[in-house]
Amino acid sequence: MANRTYEELQPQSDWVRESGSNTLIIDLQGFKKEQLKVQLDNIGNLKISGERPVTDNRWARFRKDFRIPENSNLNEIRAKFEKGTLYVIIPKTITQTLPPLQRSPPPTPTQQKPAQQEETEKKTNEEREQEQKPKPQPSPEAARKVPSGKEEMGPMPPPPSGKAAKGGVMQGLMRKKPNQLLVNVLVSFAVVVGIGIYAAYKFKAATGTGERNQD
């Protein structure tokens, strides 16, 4: 059997990218389905090759490697050959997209009040309650006190009548007489002492004058 000679081919290829899949299209005119091989290696490369006879021992062949796009479903890759064109359909991985979170609108002032506003309103209500409470009235004993802190004198007792009045006046005079008598005694004593001092002085002066005259 004679050795084969090969002619290397470079078939044209193109990608068709859609929302649900990517499709590789290769123009392989003159080839048959059984003359083609579509393989996928363990690192995500797509290897497509084929060979066909031309004349006698001359053959035409090709080999092309393609990188599988990301987010591809490798278990669902399929190929079909129609009218000299190879279609390799690579579905995309379906990623479940979660709907956006529905954010509730912020509470209105009537729904929720700030803590500071609630505390202020609470203090205002307490102040109003304190103002509405009746103020305590001063007791009669407190009303009798003067602002300076001294107590007011109570009402004067009524003057005694008849003998009781006279007895009271006499008792008052008798209480005053000892005091007046003591004063009178002291004054008389002072006068006597003064007279005695004066007389002694005069006597001494007269005695001294007589002695000088005799000399």
Automatic annotation (TrEMBL):
<comment type="similarity">
    <text>Belongs to the small heat shock protein (HSP20) family.</text>
</comment>
<feature type="region of interest" description="Disordered">
    <location>
        <begin position="97"/>
        <end position="168"/>
    </location>
</feature>
<keyword id="KW-1003">Cell membrane</keyword>
<dbReference type="InterPro" id="IPR008978">
    <property type="entry name" value="HSP20-like_chaperone"/>
</dbReference>
<feature type="compositionally biased region" description="Basic and acidic residues">
    <location>
        <begin position="142"/>
        <end position="153"/>
    </location>
</feature>
<dbReference type="GO" id="GO:0006952">
    <property type="term" value="P:defense response"/>
</dbReference>
<dbReference type="InterPro" id="IPR002068">
    <property type="entry name" value="A-crystallin/Hsp20_dom"/>
</dbReference>
<dbReference type="GO" id="GO:0034605">
    <property type="term" value="P:cellular response to heat"/>
</dbReference>
<protein>
    <recommendedName>
        <fullName>SHSP domain-containing protein</fullName>
    </recommendedName>
</protein>
<keyword id="KW-0812">Transmembrane</keyword>
<keyword id="KW-0472">Membrane</keyword>
<feature type="compositionally biased region" description="Basic and acidic residues">
    <location>
        <begin position="119"/>
        <end position="134"/>
    </location>
</feature>
<feature type="domain" description="SHSP">
    <location>
        <begin position="4"/>
        <end position="111"/>
    </location>
</feature>
<feature type="transmembrane region" description="Helical">
    <location>
        <begin position="181"/>
        <end position="201"/>
    </location>
</feature>
<dbReference type="Pfam" id="PF00011">
    <property type="entry name" value="HSP20"/>
</dbReference>
<dbReference type="GO" id="GO:0005886">
    <property type="term" value="C:plasma membrane"/>
</dbReference>
<keyword id="KW-0611">Plant defense</keyword>
<keyword id="KW-1133">Transmembrane helix</keyword>
